[in-house]
Amino acid sequence: MHQHKKITILSEAEIVDIYAYPHLTDNERQDYFYLNKTELQALEKLKKPGAKLYFILQLGYFKSSNMLHDICFEKSTADIHYILKSNYFNNVSQVHLALPELVCFLQAV
Fold first, then answer.
1. Average pLDDT, the chain
2. What is the pTM of this model?
Protein backbone atom coordinates (compact mmCIF):
# COMPACT_ATOMS: atom_id res chain seq x y z
CA MET A 1 0.00 0.00 0.00
CA HIS A 2 1.14 3.48 -0.82
CA GLN A 3 0.57 6.25 1.62
CA HIS A 4 -0.19 9.60 0.10
CA LYS A 5 1.71 12.44 1.69
CA LYS A 6 0.76 16.05 1.29
CA ILE A 7 3.46 18.30 0.00
CA THR A 8 3.83 21.30 2.28
CA ILE A 9 5.07 24.36 0.49
CA LEU A 10 4.18 26.99 3.07
CA SER A 11 3.84 26.76 6.83
CA GLU A 12 0.67 27.93 8.59
CA ALA A 13 2.46 31.12 9.68
CA GLU A 14 3.60 31.85 6.13
CA ILE A 15 0.07 31.36 4.81
CA VAL A 16 -1.29 33.78 7.42
CA ASP A 17 1.44 36.31 6.56
CA ILE A 18 0.57 36.15 2.87
CA TYR A 19 -3.23 36.10 3.05
CA ALA A 20 -3.98 38.02 6.26
CA TYR A 21 -6.19 41.08 6.13
CA PRO A 22 -4.00 44.20 5.95
CA HIS A 23 -3.32 46.02 9.23
CA LEU A 24 -1.58 49.22 8.26
CA THR A 25 0.49 51.59 10.35
CA ASP A 26 0.11 55.35 10.01
CA ASN A 27 3.19 55.49 7.77
CA GLU A 28 1.87 52.66 5.60
CA ARG A 29 -1.51 54.40 5.27
CA GLN A 30 0.28 57.51 4.05
CA ASP A 31 2.12 55.47 1.41
CA TYR A 32 -0.55 52.99 0.32
CA PHE A 33 -3.51 55.39 0.23
CA TYR A 34 -1.60 58.03 -1.71
CA LEU A 35 -3.02 58.28 -5.23
CA ASN A 36 -0.81 59.17 -8.17
CA LYS A 37 -2.10 61.12 -11.20
CA THR A 38 -3.47 58.05 -13.00
CA GLU A 39 -5.17 56.74 -9.87
CA LEU A 40 -6.70 60.18 -9.21
CA GLN A 41 -8.11 60.24 -12.74
CA ALA A 42 -9.73 56.85 -12.12
CA LEU A 43 -11.12 58.08 -8.78
CA GLU A 44 -12.63 61.17 -10.41
CA LYS A 45 -14.65 58.94 -12.76
CA LEU A 46 -16.46 57.45 -9.76
CA LYS A 47 -19.47 59.51 -8.70
CA LYS A 48 -20.65 57.92 -5.45
CA PRO A 49 -18.67 58.46 -2.24
CA GLY A 50 -19.07 54.79 -1.29
CA ALA A 51 -17.52 53.68 -4.58
CA LYS A 52 -14.66 56.14 -4.11
CA LEU A 53 -13.99 54.88 -0.59
CA TYR A 54 -14.08 51.25 -1.75
CA PHE A 55 -11.71 52.07 -4.64
CA ILE A 56 -9.15 53.74 -2.36
CA LEU A 57 -9.35 50.95 0.24
CA GLN A 58 -9.02 48.18 -2.33
CA LEU A 59 -6.19 49.94 -4.16
CA GLY A 60 -4.29 50.64 -0.94
CA TYR A 61 -4.69 47.06 0.26
CA PHE A 62 -3.55 45.81 -3.14
CA LYS A 63 -0.46 48.01 -2.92
CA SER A 64 0.31 46.56 0.51
CA SER A 65 -0.21 42.88 -0.29
CA ASN A 66 -0.46 42.49 -4.09
CA MET A 67 -3.87 40.89 -3.76
CA LEU A 68 -7.51 41.93 -3.57
CA HIS A 69 -9.37 41.59 -0.28
CA ASP A 70 -13.00 41.35 0.77
CA ILE A 71 -13.48 44.69 2.48
CA CYS A 72 -14.55 44.32 6.11
CA PHE A 73 -15.74 47.54 7.77
CA GLU A 74 -14.84 46.41 11.28
CA LYS A 75 -11.27 45.58 10.25
CA SER A 76 -10.91 48.75 8.15
CA THR A 77 -12.21 51.38 10.56
CA ALA A 78 -8.86 53.13 11.12
CA ASP A 79 -8.14 53.07 7.37
CA ILE A 80 -11.59 54.47 6.56
CA HIS A 81 -11.14 57.30 9.07
CA TYR A 82 -7.73 58.07 7.55
CA ILE A 83 -9.17 58.18 4.02
CA LEU A 84 -12.16 60.31 5.04
CA LYS A 85 -9.79 62.89 6.55
CA SER A 86 -7.72 62.98 3.35
CA ASN A 87 -8.00 65.50 0.53
CA TYR A 88 -9.90 62.92 -1.54
CA PHE A 89 -13.03 63.56 0.55
CA ASN A 90 -12.93 67.36 1.03
CA ASN A 91 -16.52 68.35 1.83
CA VAL A 92 -17.87 64.85 2.51
CA SER A 93 -18.59 63.81 6.06
CA GLN A 94 -18.76 60.26 7.33
CA VAL A 95 -22.51 60.70 7.82
CA HIS A 96 -22.98 61.31 4.10
CA LEU A 97 -21.16 58.08 3.35
CA ALA A 98 -23.90 56.04 5.01
CA LEU A 99 -25.49 55.54 1.60
CA PRO A 100 -27.35 52.34 0.72
CA GLU A 101 -24.62 51.07 -1.64
CA LEU A 102 -21.95 51.59 1.03
CA VAL A 103 -24.05 49.96 3.74
CA CYS A 104 -24.73 47.00 1.44
CA PHE A 105 -21.09 46.25 0.69
CA LEU A 106 -20.16 46.71 4.33
CA GLN A 107 -22.95 44.44 5.59
CA ALA A 108 -22.33 41.78 2.95
CA VAL A 109 -19.02 40.81 4.56
1. 81
2. 0.74
